[in-house]
Write a structure and sequence with these properties.
With about 240 residues, this protein is an alpha/beta fold. It has nine helices and seven strands. It has a seven-stranded mixed sheet. Strand 1, helix 1 and strand 2 form a beta-alpha-beta unit. The longest helix has about 30 residues.
């Protein structure tokens, strides 16, 4: 079995790597975040590849240069425990199913995931499976299929008969399995646009009063800004889960 170990944190890394080795063997491919590459080299492990914002592409190209095998994906930022790994191994079983690890989502998470999947279904005609990209088992046949298409496709929802799901309740592990939202310049842009619309609205009211068509026009502009903000947020979330 092959292990793709994505080094996005060096916290307790020796212990985590040893836990992986004890269960899956020594065939580990280390793909290291660029900012951690120098520090990671001091631990004595061999770096197979370095990534910045193109993680999925790097994993794809790296696996293409190796033999196709059953594969475990693991990110070192996950607060893994012996108990969680044991449950994961049990789920893998005879290795004929994809094993997804699914964090426990709260009410707000579920609301966002529902809206986000409307965007994903509209774009790709299939939903995001909402599993964590940070811990996953891929059978050999699925690895081969992914390498013939795009490795990021591992996160899409597939036939439930081909998937075994492990739900996580441990708070630390649960939090670390999720992809954290990040602020970027597009969020700032939509805020600036909203402020500009407000300024124009106040100016229009000052000169034209509260006429229906003026209010209706600016309501439409606000709605348009909200829709664009939603689309940009969904795209960023998709990029973080599937590509980066």
């Amino acid at each position: 079995m092959k292990i793709v170990c994505v080094v996005d944190s060096i916290n307790n890394i020796r212990n985590k790597v040893n836990m992986l080795k004890n269960r899956f063997g020594d065939d580990i491919i280390f793909i290291v975040k660029a900012q951690l590459a120098d520090l990671f080299s001091t631990f004595g492990y061999n770096t197979s590849a370095i990534y910045n914002t193109n993680l999925t592409k790097i994993i794809h190209f790296t696996l293409q240069r190796t033999s196709i095998e059953d594969t475990v994906i693991f990110y070192t930022s996950v607060e893994i425990t012996e108990e969680l790994l044991d449950k994961f191994v049990t789920k893998i079983g005879n290795r004929n199913k994809l094993v997804n690890v699914v964090p426990t989502y709260n009410t707000m998470d579920k609301m966002w995931n529902g809206l986000y999947n409307i965007y994903i279904k509209g774009m790709f005609k299939v939903k995001d499976g909402l599993a964590s990209p940070k811990l996953q088992f891929l059978p050999k046949a699925m690895v081969e299929e992914l390498l013939s298409s795009h490795f990021g496709n591992r996160m899409f929802e597939i036939d439930p008969r081909l998937v075994s799901t492990l739900e996580v309740e441990d708070k630390k592990a649960n939090k670390s399995l999720k992809i954290k939202p990040k602020f970027n310049r597009f969020h700032l842009l939509t805020i600036i646009v909203a402020l500009m619309i407000t300024a124009l609205l106040l100016t229009a009211i000052a000169f034209n009063g509260t006429k229906f068509f003026v209010i209706a026009l600016f309501v439409m502009l606000y709605l348009l800004d909200i829709i664009i903000t939603f689309i940009l947020q969904c795209k960023q979330h998709f990029d973080n889960r599937f590509l980066k």
